[in-house]
Amino acid sequence: MAELKDVTFRPINTEDIPILNEMEKSIFPGIEYKDETWRYFLRNTESSIIALKNDKAIGYVVSCFLYQNTDEYTPYMSAAGYIYHIVSLGVLSEYKNQGIGTRLLNMCINKAFKIPLKYISLHVMDGNMHAMHIYKKRGFKFGFHVDRYYDSGEGGNFMYLNGPGLRVVLDEEPPLVKE
Ligand SMILES: CC(C)(COP(=O)(O)OP(=O)(O)OC[C@H]1O[C@@H](n2cnc3c(N)ncnc32)[C@H](O)[C@@H]1OP(=O)(O)O)[C@@H](O)C(=O)NCCC(=O)NCCS
């Protein structure tokens, strides 16, 4: 695999939302988060990271506590009512297969597990073999399948990774959600 030459990484903040929108359009055509949704995600910026090459944004990972009220998510919660979820990970197509996605994933997990979490999780679309490969290689396990998870009608696979946290934090609010 090529070296990550000249690629730098830094935390994402809300000023990066226009850049995230631009990358998202190219990486996930037809899927669009509203600015307010990005802002909700980025209330926790600790483990949301952008990759840059010569100051150009070329990839990102965004993760945060997400409220879930369906039973299937209960075993994977890291705080009462909340899972800690990688909501988006992407690399511009011309920079794929250079290890940038793997690096973003690892940096995100390492930062998030300082909280410490019981689990970190994500959804991956049926048939997305590239993404599944890097998740499985990092130790993510299959949790359950969600039919028609995506607006396009595709199913999603919920995957999770065990973290260092030993128990669910029973606070009312998860530790990193900022108002
Ligand atoms: C999935 C994605 C984030 C991966 O980022 P990336 O920087 O291209 O990935 P990496 O270079 O770290 O991955 C390389 C590894 O994937 C493997 N790989 C590449 N294409 C593959 C494929 N079609 N099927 C299985 N494995 C594949 C390579 O062999 C390599 O494996 P190795 O590390 O064991 O040698 C990126 O391709 C992307 O943005 N895809 C579109 C958006 C997306 O699907 N995001 C994930 C949403 S859940």
Mean pLDDT: 91
CATH fold label: Aminopeptidase
Small-molecule components bound: coenzyme A
- Neighbour order of strands in the largest sheet: 1-2-3-4-5-7-6
Count of individual helical segments = 4
- Sheet with the most strands, sense and barrel status: 7 strands, mixed
The CATH architecture term is 3-Layer(aba) Sandwich
| Helix percentage range | 10-25%
Fraction in beta strands: 25-35%
CATH class division = Alpha Beta
Distance between the termini: 41 Å
Low-confidence stretches: none
Basic shape:
globular
Structural class: alpha+beta
Q: Superfamily at the CATH H level?
A: Gcn5-related N-acetyltransferase (GNAT)
Q: What is the radius of gyration computed over CA atoms, rounded to a whole number of angstroms?
A: 16 Å
The total number of structural domains is 1
What's the total number of strands?
7
Oligomer: single chain
Q: Helix and strand string, N-terminal first?
A: EHHEEEHEHEE
Key structural traits:
179 residues, alpha+beta, Aminopeptidase, 29% strand, globular
Reconstruct the topology from this structure.
Elements: E1 7-11, H1 17-27, H2 35-41, E2 49-53, E3 56-67, E4 82-91, H3 100-112, E5 119-125, H4 129-138, E6 141-146, E7 156-162
Parallel strand pairs: 4-5
Antiparallel strand pairs: 1-2, 2-3, 3-4, 5-7, 6-7
Coenzyme A (COA) is lined by residues 1, 27, 89-91, 96-102, 124, 128-131, 133-134, 137.
Please tell me about this protein's structure.
This protein has 179 residues and is of the alpha+beta class. The protein has a single domain (7-162), classed as Gcn5-related N-acetyltransferase (GNAT) (Aminopeptidase, 3-Layer(aba) Sandwich), CATH 3.40.630. Helices cover 23% and strands 29% of the residues. It has helices at 17-27, 35-41, 100-112, 129-138, and strands spanning 7-11, 49-53, 56-67, 82-91, 119-125, 141-146, 156-162. The mean pLDDT is 91. Bound molecules: coenzyme A. Coenzyme A (COA) binds at residues 1, 27, 89-91, 96-102, 124, 128-131, 133-134, 137.
